[in-house]
Amino acid sequence: MPRIDFLLLALAVSGVAFSAPLITATAAPAVAIAFWRNCIATGVLSPIALLRHRAELRAMSRRTVLLCLAAGAFLALHFAMWLPSLRMTSIASSTALCTVTPLWTTLYLRLRGHHIPRMVWIGSATAFAGVLVLTGVDFSTDTRALAGDALALGAGMAASGYFLLGSEVRRTASTIAYTYVCYATTAVLLLVACVASGQALTGYSGSTWLKIVLLTGAAQFLGHSLSNRVVRTLGPSLVSTAILMETPGAALIGAVWLGQMPPVAVYPAVGLVLIGLLVVIRGQRRT
Fold first, then answer.
1. Using CA atoms, how far apart are residues 161 and 81, in angstroms rounded to an integer?
2. Is there a contact between 13 and 243 (Cβ–Cβ < 8 Å)?
3. What is the pTM of this model?
4. Tens digit of pLDDT for each residue in 136-147?
């Protein structure tokens, strides 16, 4: 394994870890932030997709296009729930609950008749126990925080659908072609949501626009793109395990940069979630 890939993976984890604190610190409506993040990403990808992948885009089957559109819809739903949750509950709680995506993926595969190893079930139970503790802590402190937890959980479910559909599309489509159609779909749907809800899309300060650009670069390109780059050499198990560090990383950045210190009981709950997800990933790797 090239050493450079481990460095790239560390940069990817750093990129996604900055996502939640940047969103929290950006003085713009949550869904509008999500729209501009995907709009900018689509704009950057457009020259590459339309010049180098035009033939592939034209040759996409109807099924592939529909899967890309569905993945974009799930991604829009993910953003529409997760970003507002960061304004309602702590960064640590929201990020931890949103990263339980492997639990929903495991449940979906079981419903499809796939065999689930015992180690995966043990990890799922551990992570779910952490979820219960986390939501219990927030319920005891603030019902608004509990609503934020519910949104974060829903965002994790939507992300699971996005990943499952994306993995199916990637069997036949390149990364650029898939992400271009997916991000464009997400941007359009979020634009509709912003207009329907009356969220302001302009009139922000210069520092707010800078944070939106930094968010797009850190999370969308640095985080996601580098993860996709190194997964071929390091393997999905190692990459997905490393990405779990987003939760403690985001919590630490939020505490140092924003002074956001959640209740002490949140930390062991987050620890349970991370341990459970780590066991799930190891169980899936053995399978």
1. 14
2. yes
3. 0.87
4. 777 767 788 889
